[in-house]
Amino acid sequence: MNPFLQEVAEDLMARFGSDLQNCAIIFNNKRPSAYLQKHLADIIQKPFFSPSFFTIQEFFAAATNYKIADFYMQFFTLHQIYNQLLVEEKLETISSHKFFPLAKIILSDFNQIDSDLVDAEKLYRDLEDISIINKDFDYLSPEQYEFLAQFWTSYSEGKHKKQQELFIKMWRRMPKLYHKLHETLKAQDYITNGYAYRLLAKEDINQQEFLKGFEKGKIVFVGFNALSNAEAKIFTQLQQAEKALFYFDVDEYYLNDPLQEAGLFLRKNINQLGLKNIFENQPSLIKTENHSVNVFKVQGQSAQAKILNTILADDYENSAEIGSTVVVLADESLLIPTLQTIPTTNNGHNIDLNVTMGFALATSSIFGLADLWLTSQLEILQSSRVSYKNVEAFITHPLSGLSQRMRDKIQTALLNENVVEIDHQRLLRQSGLFEVFYKKIERPENVVPFLIGVLDYVLTRLSNAKTLKKIDAELFVKSIQELNRLHDTFGKHIDNEEIPFIIYLVQKSLQAIAVPLAGDPLSGIQVMGLLETRNLNFDKVIILGFNEGIIPKSSIGNSFIPDSIRRVYGLPVLENLDAISSYMVYRLLQRSNNINFVYNSLTDESTSGEASRILKQLEFESGFDFKYHELNLNIQTEPFKEVKIEKTGNKFIQETLQKYLNKTKILSPSAITQYISNPIDFFFNYISGIKEPKEVSAVVEANEIGSILHKVMEYFYQDLKNGEITAERINERKKLIPGLIQKAFNAVMFNHPDKVIEYKGMQKVILAIVDAYVTIILDQDTKQTPFNIVSLEQKVEAEITFPLNGQEASVKIFGYIDRVDVKDGITKIIDYKTGSDKLTFKDIPELFNSDGKNINKALIQTLLYTYAYEQFSGKTCVEPNLYIVKTMSQDGIWFKTGRQNLSGDFLEEIKPEFLAELRKKLTELFEAPYFTASAIPDNYKYSIYKTLFGK
């Protein structure tokens, strides 16, 4: 089957020959021009003067005497006029930021009104009248109300009258806004795109000076379908003057059947408007040609792209020619999965691939850098500081150009300081890109030039280093071009705007940029969106994302003009989208023999899981040969495999364990309790040395609250420990607590006890929590007075012997005891806890059972401190006390089994048993053949290594 554009080229050559250069050829989009030129070249076989090619928008813009105002010029002009109208009504003006989403809808409505030649004043007056009826006639029956105001269902109740009144006022000012917008733009020699349509339709287009350049030829319109009222009027005028030719790509299958929505607009163009189709008597390709259709049902959005390699297998082997194969992305979010799926080579030869949709700047590292700059500038404007996460993102960004050594140096310094926000001036002092990147925006007109400066700096450095990739170079150039255009457009409009709003506009503008990827539009596999396929034909068609809600779309877009009014005035409604989508699919299929539909069968927030209704319709009535395939991605789960780390024969493990036996490494109580709770955790932490990366965070972790509390208590008792502690001395010193808490907070969080900062948000909450904890501890201490403090945060060391391979071995343990008191001749170990530790225990053997549920880490650690202190000091009968701040006011401070407290004679009985079980566990640590995981998941519930071994 010959492509449609080839038939157009043949007919044009037959009609005009060498005079074709005098013709203007108009398409809906740019893509078909290259194809038609190729077909013309194939026919003529020698150099020739080309006809002029235009898109419809370019053609109409060239035919007027005005320039087309871009969106931002229209927005700023509209905002100025809107506020003027509000002032005239003695109402409060609206800010640019609040008006922006409103303006987008208003401008879209105005454009639609103009292109469809609707009387704006009459339309908005009707809207006002109907809304007044809805507001004032609440007594009507539901049936009457529905007939009068279908569009006002969401504001029908009395409580919504305030919003109704606001809308009435807005619609009342709309005609003025509409006329003043066009008057203001025209005074500057600018008009909107829709108004260009209205102007040309209102006048006799045949008298336009621009068209006189084509008097020796014709204006050729190729492949049009849905026409606005302005286009319809202009096309009719040109045909009546015998200046236009129309080539409609149509099949009688859907043209002559009034029930076929695909032919809705073509029937209107040909039968109602009387536009003459040059190809009017062609046979139906849908009915006469063979069409093989494969339907692929897959599970998952990205999975649709994964089936491409199966469908395109033959294309990889053969050199594709013009009109051969196209991959149509009905859902354009499938571009990246598609590019990741189609290989670049096959069996040693390159695969030709052309992507016409373009690569979005928003998915590139360049946009990431620009967006980071815009975000950082907002922070600098607000507080003259930049958050650590944004500074870290900048120094680790691939385009920052910092060496790994410099990145590590900066990150280490910031991590050590635990600075959540970095002072702006400190960043500026780093010079180089830092100085360019963090230069503060002082005025709104600085936003675009400063961003251009950042991108230009990075682009120059990459070019000089010869590390600039081709796609990045194109994205840089496109970004700088767009920013320069914005700078010209913003001009005098932004002098009084807020900088954050200008930043918002720049972000939105950059997000819309896309750069076409390299490729030949005339050969190889073509990847494009559905709209880009207009006028083009391919033997093999693959459509991805062929889901209901995507083809056709389920929404017409935002508008202040309700559906009922749109129908009255002939503006586009949802059914128009159905007809347009159906036509694009049918037109694409009518000249194809190998058709492949792929759709996602899973239901999620973006798709219904249903194939498009167009597919169902084709299946029911077309007579095509349908074959169905289902791609099931089998999910296989592997049975849990116990992870065991073998010690024997592993030189590294044996050498590390030997360091503990040689006393070159010392065991802490935390290390011992970690081994008891989950032996494999001990391996990852103390043998392999795998640590959790340190992060800067404004959130204070639970363990840091404990550290702050420990510091406060150390500071509190530092000056009291030299004498007897009494209730009076404690109460007298309480007034210093707020300052001590701040000092402790700064010491733990910033390694700087005397740092002066302004506490805010969660920091104030943490200070209050610690204050409450300190009060609880001091209340307990007051009850215990009088007593004496022997030491604070004292480091103690001791050796523990244990049997190993038939001989005696020993390890050294060490720890820091929070506090050692003496009361009534009894020495007490005081340990503060802010977590959910418990004072109860079952028995001593259960404390050391790694596969049991009764491990009490706090008791093990406190008894270890007790043993170490007795060895260190030579004292006996030392008693462990645990201050669990959350529960000690109810549960006390003594460990207990059943009702018996761990003190006095009972404690002395327990100590030898504890030491015996500890020795057994140490023997296991050094003698057992494996490090294994505990059989009780709760024992490693919060382990950071769980992904390495967890069940």
TrEMBL record:
Domain PD-(D/E)XK endonuclease-like positions: 667-872
Pfam family, one: PDDEXK_1
InterPro entries to which the protein is assigned, alphabetical: P-loop_NTPase, PDDEXK-like_dom_sf, PDDEXK_AddAB-type, Restrct_endonuc-II-like
Name of the protein described by the UniProt record: PD-(D/E)XK nuclease family protein
Organism: Pedobacter polaris
